[in-house]
Amino acid sequence: MRGEAGSGTGARRGMTIGALGIALLLGVTGTAVAVPPPPPNPSDSEINSSKADANAKAGDVGRLTNQLAQAESKLAQLNDDVELKMEEANKARVDAETAQDEAAQADREARSARTESDAAQATIDKARADLDKFAAASFQQGSTIGSVSAYLTANSPKELLGRAQMLDAVGGSRLNALDTMKRAQTDKSNKDATARKKLEIAQERKRAAEAAKHEADNAQSAAQHAQDTQATQNQKLEADKASVEKQLFEAQQKVSGLQGQRQRYEDWKAQKAREDEERARQAALAAERPSQGGGGRPSGRPVQSAPAGASVEAVVRRALAQLGVVYAWGGGNTSGPTRGIRDGGTADRYGDYNKIGFDCSGLMIYAFAGVKSLPHYSGYQYNAGRKVPLSQMRRGDMLFWGGSARGIHHVAMYLGNGQMVEAPQSGLRVRIAPVRYGGIMPYATRLIG
Questions:
Q1: Please, is 67 exposed, middle or buried when counting C-beta atoms within 10 Å of its C-beta (0-12, 13-18, 19+)?
Q2: Which of 68, 97, 99, 373 lies at a CB distance of 3.0 to 4.6 Å from 209, suitable for a disulfide?
Q3: Closest by alpha carbon to 255, among 426, 47, 90?
Q4: 250: left (phi over 0), alpha (psi -120 to 50) or beta
Q5: pTM of the model
Q6: 214 is an active site residue
Q7: Dist. CA 333–CA 328, nearest whole Å
Q8: Which residues of the chain have pLDDT under 50?
Q9: Using the 8-state DSSP alphabet, how is residue 18 labeled?
Q10: What is the pLDDT of residue 276?
């Protein structure tokens, strides 16, 4: 930055800040004026203490992140267990209903078999009574053919013979019928016994199925309770993690503030040294002027470098100029947004190959164009500059997410005050968002400064 004096002081046009400062200090009469006090200079112990605090908070965030990941994994397993227990409970219900139906059918068959057996027994009992009456009558007549009157009333020997044969047949048929009914009764008794056995088995299955259903319902209830308990623990871990992340941000801000104070103090020291050097040079020139005849004018001018952070701000401005540009996987180069490419998965479902935009690493390529050529892969960009701990990250640094198991998968640019600019994912647009500390890499990558 260069300043100008008023009209009539053209010899001072283009004077550097250092020379201008000397002039202000000396004034027109050459007498010194009051010098402002130096900016605060925090001690190394203060800075180191704040760094240690930030590192401890970062460690807490990492620990809680790991705990939360384990808790989420456990919750997922419990969710699966609940689904399994629900299916087992459904199976037990179906089995119980089937066993109930089988028991009811077996009970109906047992009752029917018992009824048939009882009816057969009643028929046998009646036939036996009739046979006993016939036998008694035959015994009273002294013959096995029943009643003597059947013979006395016969009109001829031929008729007498026929009646004798008929009575004999009647007695034999009664005996045969009785034997047949006894066999039928035995068969029906066997069926009754089989039916009762089937009923016993069906009832046992019914009891076993109902017990299994009760056990499955209890298991399902226990699994659901475990799931609910774990979900509550996860919510607490989420809250704890958010609280510690806030503390981490505050600790990092403190580190940044102290480091900023130290940097301003160092800049002040350097500026003061330049002013002292310029004052000495001006004094030497003034001492030489009488021998030169007076009127001499310093010929040399100190060269001021570009203000610190100017390149960083240029990079930040380029990134922020793309806010609202659509995400397109594979999109972005040094000239700006480009058409996305196919990935065979999520990006294709969002139609990224038909969009003009940036992906996360493409936005970094554009932002840092003219500073450093970056490859179109966040994993390579992570190693493209100097690594700095997150506790020392500052505006313009690149932040990364991922891990050794699956590699880097996202990159964003830190803006300061806990904010970052990123091209997030398919379906979204380039945006400013709070820094997400879950899964973040322990180092930021610095390309400038």
A1: middle
A2: 99
A3: 47
A4: alpha
A5: 0.36
A6: no
A7: 12
A8: 1-34, 144-146, 291-310
A9: H
A10: 81
22-59 as b/e, with b when 16 or more CB fall inside 10 Å?
bbeeeeeeeeeeeeeeeeeebeeeebeebbebbbebbe
The residue annotated as part of the active site, out of 46, 200, 360, 409, is 360
Measured distance CA(290)–CA(279) in Å, rounded: 18
Q: Tokens at residue 438, please?
A: 């879950």
Question: For the chain, how far is it from start to end, CA to CA, in angstroms?
Answer: 19
C-alpha 53/C-alpha 248 separation (Å) is: 8
Which is the catalytic residue, given 88, 102, 116, 422?
422
CB neighbours of residue 351 within 10 Å = 13
Here the tokens at position 114 are 């018992």
What sign results for the dihedral spanned by CA atoms 319, 321, 322, 324?
Answer: positive
Place of tokens 């008794």: 189
Q: Are 167 and 143 in contact (CB under 8 A)?
A: no
* Ramachandran bin of 88, using left for φ above 0, alpha for ψ from -120 to 50, beta for the remaining angles: alpha
- 159 catalytic? Reply is no
